[in-house]
Amino acid sequence: MEGEETMEEYRVGTLPTLYYIPDFISDLQQSQILHHIYEAPVTKWKSLKNRRLQNWGGVVHEKGLLPQDLPPWLKGVTNKICDMTGLFPSPINHVLINEYLPDQGIMPHQDGPAYFPVVAILSLGSSAVMDFTPHVRLRECTNESDAKSSTSTGNVNNKGDGCSEDRVCGDAADHLPFSLLLKPCSLLIFKDKAYSDYLHGIEDSHIHKLDKKLKYIHQQAQQKHINLRKPMSKTAFRDLALESH
């Protein structure tokens, strides 16, 4: 709670636990981080279909983390995040560095239970739009509720259907898609319902639209996101996602 009170001025949108800090690091610090990223051995990179990434802090598997120490240049970033935000219950010890070229992105996804309840993303290189989409269980519930309301003239009986749980359906109407513009050197943190109830992704296009409006973001350079998280396991961990665009 203390961390959330400290971060109140950085809260964005309607969700109570979504925070955006512009200029979290300086241009010089960004250049230094990028230097270390590209000084890493080629073998440190893993190429995927629509991006490549570096993994620091150990190997995540179904039972948790096989830990390795973070290098000093990453510890400086992770320590600053923990100290300034107060949102991480223990030190960040896992980092994914995702690199996206123009026309590259990542499909809407959830980071999974291992990283719950909080993730931080530091953006480097250029701007990008991150889209947040309600989890499928909430979208299905909203659609079913809309269908019922259009065919019923009396009280709706939810007994026996997928929307019978007030906890889910009572909140479904409040979960709407939205987008955030992530600028270089900025830090995004989302936790709790912003983590569990939404998928997040980046459109694989060199032109990004903000909330589907005519505000386009042209990707002119590589973008990197540094994801900082701490997976849950016998060796607990939090993770930062340094994302480079």
How would you describe this structure to a colleague?
The protein is 24% helix and 33% strand. The protein is of the alpha+beta class. β2 and β3 form a beta hairpin.
Low-confidence residue ranges: 145-165, 214-220, 231-238
SS-based structural class? Answer: alpha+beta
Shape: globular
In whole angstroms, the N-to-C terminal distance is 33 Å
* Count of helical stretches: 6
- Reading the helices and strands in chain order gives HEHEEEEHEEEEHHEEHEEEEE
User: What is the share of helical residues?
Assistant: 10-25%
Strand content: 25-35%
Features:
16 strands, 245 residues, alpha+beta, 8-stranded mixed sheet
Quick overview:
This protein is 24% helix and 33% strand. The chain is of the alpha+beta class. The longest helix has 16 residues, at 136-151.
